[in-house]
């Protein structure tokens, strides 16, 4: 098993040079990880990276402005981002893979599946959306407005309120809120506004009917940032998609909900046809 981070080189002339910070970890059939807005590979998948890497090769590119990837110099483009993630996997020696997309990463994964169908073995879409629902659109606008006013601590408070479940928040004493707010603020990447700008523009609704890869949609029913109805629409729009609900789970899965997620995802991946040697 190996783990390293690198800046990818272009190994496929049909793909762009990714110029992304990429984590590669494990061995076995490849899983390409597509993280959410304002997050990163560790932030989204950290609780399950070691487990999945026991029998999969994980390729985790950081979007521009996340991890060690340089901040974008122009607005993010969904097609370009999708192609750069695929190029990162190919540069890591993985010509085909399942894509695990979370939140914004679900839309990225859908676009990958329709632009590169011969490479995509399966999709797992968690807390995802094809286009921003009203709650997500309002949150994205608030984040952009607060950030423009320099109120980054309020951005962190909004993120905490939106991404944690009421049950998890109820366990916090009001006097103890400063610490998780500070932790959230520290974890926000430099490219956060670029990511949420893309959130407000992304629309893969027309792609859904063209997804041919086996797909598992995971809907956290307690999500207060991306409404569960967005996941239901993904599942309804993708031919043959399976839908799993995580009752009461928030946008950011706590350890117990992530363990349930892992069990469902492992069962789904185990049922896929074996990769050719």
Going by helix content, strand content and strand pairing, the class is alpha/beta
Are there runs of 5+ residues with pLDDT below 50, and where?
Answer: 1-13
Mean pLDDT: 92
Q: Which band does the percent of strand residues land in? A: 15-25%
Report the total helices. 11
Distance between the termini: 18 Å
State the helical fraction. 40-55%
Q: What can be said about the biggest beta sheet?
A: 8 strands, mixed
Pfam family, one: Abhydrolase_1
Protein name: Pimeloyl-ACP methyl ester carboxylesterase
Domain AB hydrolase-1: 29-253
InterPro entries: AB_hydrolase, AB_hydrolase_1, AB_hydrolase_fold
How does this model look, in words?
InterPro entries: AB_hydrolase (IPR050471), AB_hydrolase_1 (IPR000073), AB_hydrolase_fold (IPR029058). The protein has 11 helices and 8 strands. An 8-stranded mixed sheet has the order 1-2-4-3-5-6-7-8, sandwiched between helices. Helix content is 41%, strand content 16%. Helix 4 links the parallel strand 5 and strand 6.
What topology emerges from the helices and strands here?
Layout: E1 3-7, E2 21-26, E3 30-34, H1 41-45, H2 49-53, E4 57-61, H3 78-91, E5 97-102, H4 104-115, E6 120-126, H5 134-148, H6 152-163, H7 166-170, H8 178-187, H9 192-201, E7 215-220, H10 228-237, E8 242-246, H11 255-270
Parallel strand pairs: 3-4, 3-5, 5-6, 6-7, 7-8
Antiparallel strand pairs: 1-2, 2-4
Put the structure in a nutshell.
This protein is 41% helix and 16% strand.
């Amino acid at each position: 098993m190996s783990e390293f981070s690198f800046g990818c080189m272009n190994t496929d002339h049909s793909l762009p040079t990714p110029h992304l910070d990429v984590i590669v970890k494990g061995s076995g059939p490849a899983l390409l990880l597509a993280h959410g807005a304002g997050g990163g590979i560790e932030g989204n998948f950290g609780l399950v990276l070691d487990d999945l890497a026991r029998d999969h090769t994980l390729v985790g590119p950081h979007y521009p402005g996340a991890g060690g990837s340089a901040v974008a110099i122009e607005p993010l483009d969904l097609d370009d981002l999708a192609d750069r993630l695929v190029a990162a996997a190919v540069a890591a020696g993985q010509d085909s893979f399942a894509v695990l997309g979370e939140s914004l990463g679900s839309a990225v994964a859908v676009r990958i599946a329709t632009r590169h169908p011969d490479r995509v073995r399966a999709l797992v879409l968690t807390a995802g959306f094809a286009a921003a629902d009203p709650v997500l659109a309002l949150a994205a606008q608030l984040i952009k407005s607060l950030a423009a006013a320099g109120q980054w601590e309020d951005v962190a408070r909004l993120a905490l309120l939106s991404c944690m479940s009421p049950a998890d928040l109820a366990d916090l004493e009001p006097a103890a809120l400063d610490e998780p707010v500070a932790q959230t603020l520290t974890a926000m990447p430099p490219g956060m506004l670029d990511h949420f700008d893309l959130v407000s523009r992304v629309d893969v609704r027309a792609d859904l009917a063209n997804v041919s890869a086996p797909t598992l949609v995971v809907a956290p029913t307690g999500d207060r940032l991306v409404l569960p109805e967005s996941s239901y629409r993904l599942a309804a729009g993708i031919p043959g998609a399976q839908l799993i609900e995580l009752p009461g789970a928030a946008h950011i899965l706590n350890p117990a909900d992530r363990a349930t997620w892992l069990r469902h995802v492992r069962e789904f991946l185990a049922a896929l046809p074996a990769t050719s040697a």
